[in-house]
């Protein structure tokens, strides 16, 4: 049997996730062929992903596909693909704000963007949602620098900061048109500020909201309630049948314990995130500012400024989030969102997929 051809690949940690980054030109253009190849590269389906790059968890079984932008409003285009671990599934139904942190550096490394002095800004179109983001990071001497003093929870050590700014989205912040709904007997707030998310007070499910992720995952009754809420929220949020998708995310809210704004436990969709995704945090932060939402009685919003600290199982994420109040009777709108993340190049070379 002829050995499979190698594929050019760069592995980067982006935020609190890790993923394989590819140029679109290095993968098959036909989605089915591309996805079949990525399953072989990542080692899926296999709970250990022992025969591929995947790390046996959704946070380490991710792919970023990058290409030059075809429009004038962005420099590059980024497609995020979530590769199943134990299932032969590749989904483009959601975005990933963590891998987004590595897109700008990757674009410079691959020559898609020319570095601009000591700092480079890369305008990115996120193909999963059509949204835009701008990533700014240091490029002294015309090369990407991954060394710095920025620290983020969930990642050991420090690295160079990647500042990601998001302009207000064109879609509604409240996709259901209402600040509250009752789904599966639970009061929820459905928001979308880059990631479709359902906010639920942990107490409404009989939880403190401070449980460890593994405790929550081991509770079959809770997992059933989470699934009920997701299935009911999908059509209301314009997502259709979400039985086989990873969105919307469910974020449980509890009062902060460490001086932040709120404590969270987020499901992706049934595994409990050990931290929180960037775009998920953006949606949570905006949702906390919605008058009448479920976060109103849980969060401790600052008296001044836009910066919120979202606590999660392994620390916190600081995010600047503004919500613009509409005119009388008009729904609220998301304003500017910005977050500091880090990224690090782990390897650059050729990956050899297992035989078909």
Main features:
356 residues, alpha+beta, 8-stranded mixed barrel, 16 strands, 16% helix, 33% strand, globular
What does this structure look like?
The protein is α+β, with helices and mostly antiparallel strands. Helix content is 16%, strand content 33%. The chain contains five helices and 16 strands. It has an eight-stranded mixed barrel. It starts with 6 loop residues before the first strand and ends in a 5-residue tail after the last strand.
Helices and strands in order:
Blueprint: E1 7-14, E2 17-23, H1 31-42, E3 62-68, E4 76-83, E5 90-91, H2 97-109, E6 119-126, E7 131-138, E8 161-166, E9 181-183, E10 186-192, E11 196-201, H3 213-217, H4 220-236, E12 249-254, E13 262-267, H5 278-288, E14 307-312, E15 315-324, E16 333-351
Keywords: Isomerase
EC number: 5.3.2.8
GO molecular function: isomerase activity
């Amino acid at each position: 049997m002829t050995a499979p051809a190698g594929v050019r690949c760069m592995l980067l940690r982006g935020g609190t996730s890790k993923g394989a980054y590819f140029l679109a030109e290095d993968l098959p253009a036909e989605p089915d062929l591309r996805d079949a190849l990525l399953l072989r590269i990542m080692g899926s389906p296999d709970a250990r992903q022992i025969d591929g790059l995947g790390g046996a968890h959704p946070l380490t079984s991710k792919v970023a596909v990058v290409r030059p932008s075809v429009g004038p409003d962005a420099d590059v285009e980024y497609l995020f693909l979530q590769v199943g671990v134990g299932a032969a599934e590749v989904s483009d139904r959601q975005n990933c704000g963590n891998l987004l942190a590595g897109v700008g550096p990757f674009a410079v490394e691959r020559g898609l963007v020319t570095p601009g002095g000591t700092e480079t800004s890369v305008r990115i179109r996120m193909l999963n949602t059509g949204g835009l983001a701008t990533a700014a990071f240091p490029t002294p001497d015309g090369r990407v620098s991954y060394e710095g003093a920025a620290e983020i929870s969930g990642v050991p050590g420090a690295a160079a900061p990647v500042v990601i700014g998001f302009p207000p989205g064109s879609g509604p912040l409240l996709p259901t048109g209402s600040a509250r709904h009752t789904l599966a007997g639970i009061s929820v707030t459905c928001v979308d500020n880059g990631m479709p998310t359902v906010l639920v007070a942990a107490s409404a499910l009989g939880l403190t909201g401070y449980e460890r992720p593994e405790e929550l995952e081991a509770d079959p009754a809770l997992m059933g309630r989470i699934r009920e809420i997701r299935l009911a929220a999908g059509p209301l949020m314009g997502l259709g049948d979400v039985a086989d998708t990873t969105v919307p995310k469910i974020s449980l809210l509890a009062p902060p314990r460490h001086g932040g704004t709120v404590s969270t436990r987020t499901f992706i969709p049934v595994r409990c995130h050990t931290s929180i995704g960037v775009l998920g945090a953006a949606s949570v932060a905006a949702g906390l500012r919605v008058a009448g939402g479920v976060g109103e009685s849980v969060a401790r919003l600052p008296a001044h400024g836009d910066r919120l600290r979202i606590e999660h199982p392994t620390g916190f994420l600081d995010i600047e989030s503004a919500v613009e109040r509409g005119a009388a009777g008009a729904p609220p709108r998301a304003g500017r969102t910005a977050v500091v993340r880090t990224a690090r190049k782990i390897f650059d070379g050729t990956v050899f997929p297992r035989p078909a």
